[in-house]
């Protein structure tokens, strides 16, 4: 992973972490900041994030080391739910449904930020089911032209070496013919 980390340090991307109040996410954010791997953007309530930073003894400062998107009152939310409405209106989603969806779903906030170019990557899924988060990402980004099947991959960074496990969550069809359709 050293070459990947070295490249990350050179290009310093903005990474939005959807569950920014979660302790595991805050520890991961500390690693990103300490190692200079990315500029984190946390979705969450600023007061909760600051309280947990103190509780955990983490040495980061909101606004300096990372950005916070307040998932209760960010001024960009009208633009975010408007964009989500434009994506989803042909699927029967009303403006009010789009507004409620964005305000109540940190993974959707992260996906819209990525879609708008406000972040270079997103990480979500530390809370809830894989399929909840997958549906959010699929709805916002869809598939590229000609693709009808998605795949997932997990990376395990182990002392014995790195292991990658492919398609553990998305496809129920285990026939080889469906594998050939993966992008």
TrEMBL record:
**Has the keyword Coiled coil been applied to this entry?**
no
Indicate the segments forming the Phosphate acetyl/butaryl transferase domain, all copies. Answer: 1-172
GTP-binding as a keyword of this entry, yes or no, is no
From which domain of life does this come? Bacteria
What are the EC numbers?
1.1.1.40
Q: Keyword set for this entry?
A: Acyltransferase, Oxidoreductase, Transferase
Name the InterPro entries for this protein.
P_AcTrfase_dom1, Phos_Acetyltrans/Butyryltrans, PTA_PTB
The enzyme's main class, written as a single word, is oxidoreductase
**Any one GO molecular function term:** malate dehydrogenase (decarboxylating) (NADP+) activity
Protein name (database record): NADP-dependent malic enzyme
The protein's gene is named: maeB_2
């Amino acid at each position: 992973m050293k070459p990947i980390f070295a490249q990350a340090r050179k290009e310093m991307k903005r990474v939005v972490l959807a569950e920014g109040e979660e302790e595991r996410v805050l520890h991961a954010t500390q690693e990103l900041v300490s190692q200079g791997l990315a500029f984190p953007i946390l979705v969450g309530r600023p007061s909760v994030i600051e309280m947990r930073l103190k509780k955990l003894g983490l040495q980061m400062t909101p606004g300096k080391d990372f950005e916070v998107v307040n998932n209760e009152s960010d001024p960009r939310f009208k633009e975010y739910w408007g964009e989500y409405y434009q994506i989803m209106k042909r699927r029967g989603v009303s403006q009010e449904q789009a507004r409620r969806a964005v305000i109540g779903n940190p993974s959707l906030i992260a996906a819209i930020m990525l879609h708008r170019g406000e972040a270079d990557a997103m990480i979500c899924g530390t809370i809830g089911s894989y399929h909840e988060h997958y549906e959010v990402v699929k709805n916002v980004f869809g598939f590229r032209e000609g693709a009808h099947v998605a795949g997932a991959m997990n990376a395990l960074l182990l002392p014995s070496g790195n292991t990658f496990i492919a398609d553990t969550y998305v496809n129920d069809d285990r026939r080889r013919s469906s594998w050939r359709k993966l992008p």
